[in-house]
Amino acid sequence: MDTPESPIVTITVPADVRFFRSVRLAVGGLATLVGFDVEAIDDLRIAVDEVCAALVDAGNGDDLRLEVCAQVGTSLRIEGTVPKGTLGFDEERFAFSRQILSVVADEYGYTTDDRSVNCWLERRLDREGSSVDAGTP
Q1: CATH says 8-124 is which class?
Q2: Is the pTM value of this prediction over 0.70?
Q3: For the chain, which end, N or C, has fewer CB atoms within 10 Å of the first or last residue's CB respectively?
């Protein structure tokens, strides 16, 4: 649900690694709103990079569309979708992404159907060591 406490920000970028930096910056800013500390924000930037790379690999070259839901004080969820390419997910390549996502995300996954590819992750603030000090504004 898109509310002031849980805004959904939609980011659309070309399916080109040169534009991933913009996504990482946006995710870092939204993670700050949630209340994540610097280390968790760095983890989320790495994670969103993997999501973008997986979508580019499995997509047809069209723009990446990511929705980021920042639930203030709770969690950050990133979900990306692209039209499916002819090759789909490379399971071997995604195995590497899975290793990274399993460390930096609480939940993650991907799905495909006849038309599209979806990749997502979620990181909760209550994860040990991922929140800012309660006294920090």
Answers
A1: alpha beta
A2: yes
A3: C
